[in-house]
Amino acid sequence: MKKKFSLMISAALIVSLMAGCSSKNTTDSSSAAPTASEAGNTETKANEPMVTLKYVVPGTEPKSYKETIAEVNKKLIADGLNVQVEQQYIDWGAWEQKINIMLSTHEDFDMFQVMNDFISLSNYIGRGALQDITKSMDEFGTDIKKVIPNDVFSAVKKDGKLYGIPSNWYEPAQDTGFTTNDLLFKKYNISSDFKTPQELLDASVKLYNAAPAPKPIFPSNFSSAASDVLNRTFDSFPFDVRDSVAMINKDGKVSNWIESDEFKQEAAFWHEAYTKKLMNPDILVMTGDAKNKAIKDGNWPFSAGTYGAGYETFKASFPDATKDSLSYRKFNPEKGNYRFVNAKNVNVVTAQSKHPEAAVKFLNWLYTNQENYDLFLYGVDGKSYKKVGDKGIEMIIDPATKSPLSLNVDWMVGNVNFIRQDSGAMTSDLSIFKVIPDAKSFISSGFFFDSTPVKGEMANVKAAIASDIIPIFSGVVSYDSHIKVAADKLKSAGIDKVLAEYQKQMDAYMASAK
Q1: Which of 311, 339, 367 is the last residue of a domain?
Q2: Assigned domain for 187 exists
Q3: Cβ(355)–Cβ(128) under 8 Å?
Q4: CA 433 to CA 437: how far, in whole Å?
Q5: Residues 467 and 494 placed together within one structural domain of the fold
Q6: Looking at the structure, do residues 331 and 358 belong to the same domain, yes or no?
Q7: 349 and 322 in one domain?
Q8: At what angle do helices 495-513 and 479-493 cross, to 10 degrees?
Q9: Which residue segment(s) compose the domain that 412 sits in?
Q10: What separation, in Å, do the N-terminal and C-terminal C-alpha atoms of the chain show?
């Protein structure tokens, strides 16, 4: 999953998304339910030969796999499909190496998960590892097209060919937001009606001065040198920033983000926050565990993206809290809503698959109705999860692994139209699942950079970003006194070559998308 500054979903909410795969039928599936291999020689009513869809995903096979996949395959047969599903799990640590070997040796499997922020779709297409599924989608993908916006598919097309089906599991147009602790502002009679970044800082300083120790401060550190939260405040918005170096404007022109006035102003915002003690003084060496704890504790005026830790966690810090004690906001909402990244996660068909239509048939079945979605994503009601209301969910945790009893996760194969939401979530966290019908996909929303041609330069640039740019952006050191040395380091590292490659690939993407 792509982790942007504006969308931080911590462990508790992730648990709500990592649901399992089984039938809603509570009958014991240890009976004669056919597995994928057992059903391989049967035929559907239409006398089509039964085929097995081998789906390879990252992760560890859960102990519920055999029982629940049998329920899935039973339902597929009952619905008249000539497809049975067989999943193979590859440990996260071995994923990249193993999937590359399977593709290069033409191992017999049909579908796998592409994480564009890990290895890009364009990389796999360039290797000839994927099949064009345009024909199969036209014939069997009617319900898929109903629940995935047409412009989202632009992210998985090249030269007019369709190479995957996006996991449209949340609304990307909800990015560029931040969360405020309204309970704290209200407690100390400080107005939370701030319209600008400066008003947010001023209110946060008042809260800092009014509250006792430990003082409420911004809870996070920075892994990148860009904030899409602040991007909305500029006249140049909308624009996109990738890899902390490439600024892409609405016409698809790529420029140096670090040299932009927008970067300078964002760094100034965080420098003021740092000098006014609104940031952790050890922000540059802050560990991931420390950051996560600070976010969960909730003792902050504002935080990037959503809270994610759940109502009970927040209430532990603030006993008088309600689920509405936090607000998810955006600066300048009148500027509209844009999807800056579509198809972060995509399910694709391998070049060696003998029946590419099976993947489309299966995913079309998955997105046909809530029942099928619940079956494959959440499992048996009362066994692997519990329904709460119309679209709520309470996960059942495996006591041995402390993980949900699930086969699959929403971010990998889910859809925002069907996703069940954690019944224990804060109201502000649920905003990312609200579809915005009039949202526009930004010109680079389907573009994913392949750094292979500038691998060495990119590594050097990232090192310079970490050592010299992050301290500036985090506000620890001033822009004026440090930017020249940092910019010179980026030049020496090869940033110009990286940006030229960015523009070359962006131009090719725009040409192929016409």
Answers
A1: 339
A2: no
A3: no
A4: 12
A5: yes
A6: no
A7: no
A8: 70
A9: 11-171+342-436
A10: 27
Concatenating the DSSP letter of every residue in 90-105 gives E-GGGHHHHHHHHHHT
Identify whether residues 201 and 223 lie together within a single domain. yes
Mention every residue, 6+ apart, whose C-beta is less than 8 A from residue 56: 87, 88, 90, 99, 102, 109, 111, 112, 113
List the CATH number of the domain containing 387: 3.40.190.10
Residue 256, C-beta contacts closer than 8 angstroms, at least 6 positions apart? 245, 246, 247, 495, 499
Question: Two tokens at 130?
Answer: 């994927």
Contact assessment for residue 311 and residue 192, using Cβ atoms and an 8 Å cutoff: no
Q: What are the beta bridge partners of residue 179?
A: 303, 328
What 3-state DSSP class applies to 31?
Answer: coil
Whether residue 445 is contained in a domain is answered as no
Place of tokens 């068909």: 349
Number of structural domains in the chain: 3
Q: Report whether 119 contacts 96 (CB < 8 A).
A: yes
One-character DSSP codes across 166-213: E---S-GGG-S-EEEEHHHHHHTT------SHHHHHHHHHHHHHHSPS
Query: 389: which 2 tokens?
Result: 């209301």
Per-residue pLDDT 10s for the chain (514 aa) are 433 433 434 333 433 333 333 333 333 333 333 344 343 333 444 578 999 999 999 988 887 888 889 999 999 999 999 999 999 999 999 999 999 999 999 999 999 999 987 888 988 998 999 999 999 999 999 999 999 988 889 889 888 899 999 999 999 999 999 999 999 999 999 999 999 999 999 999 999 999 999 999 999 999 889 988 999 999 999 999 999 999 999 999 999 999 999 999 999 999 999 999 999 999 999 998 899 999 999 999 999 999 988 999 999 999 999 999 999 999 999 999 999 988 889 999 999 999 999 999 999 999 999 999 999 998 888 888 899 988 889 888 888 877 788 768 899 999 999 999 888 899 999 999 998 989 999 999 989 888 889 999 999 999 999 999 999 999 999 999 999 999 999 999 999 999 999 999 999 989 887 6
Strand segments, DSSP code E, in 396-514 are 397-398, 403-404, 421-422, 440-441
Are 364 and 328 in a shared domain? no
Q: Mark whether 40 and 163 lie in a shared domain.
A: yes
Whole-prediction pTM value?
0.81
Shared-domain flag, residues 208 and 352: no
Residue type, 483: I
Residue 442 lies in a domain: no
Domain end residue (candidates: 436, 460, 490) = 436
Q: How far apart are CA 116 and CA 345, in angstroms?
A: 6
Q: Are residues 399 and 468 in the same domain?
A: no
Q: Buried b vs exposed e over 157-191: b needs ≥16 C-beta within 10 Å?
A: bbeeebbbbbbbbbbbbbbbbbbbbbbbbeeeebe
In a domain, 5, yes or no: no
